[in-house]
């Protein structure tokens, strides 16, 4: 099942600008938004799964910081 969400043109352009060639819009939104924090679902998930989620979030944040740094340098 899927749902439709109404967003502004500006936000759609922002998402599109951050979309990788091999991503769907949903995958892009999931990547940009992140997802539940591992601590929020720790009682539901196994310790191993929560740790993997925590590691992945840290990796994504580090990659995002690097990407933002690269973009800033390009426009300076």
Order of SSEs: HHH
- The level of helicity is 55-70%
Number of E strands? 0
Number of helices: 3
Low-confidence runs of at least 5 consecutive residues: none
What sort of overall outline do the alpha carbons produce when their principal axes are compared? Answer: flat
Descriptive key words:
76 residues, 0% strand, 3 helices, 2 domains, mainly alpha
Description:
The structure is a single chain. The chain has 76 residues and is an all-alpha fold. It has two domains: 1-33, no CATH class; 36-76. Helix content is 61%, strand content 0%. It has helices spanning 9-17, 25-33, 47-74. The radius of gyration is 15 Å and the shape is flat. It starts with 8 loop residues before the first helix and ends with a helix. The model has no long low-confidence stretch (mean pLDDT 84).
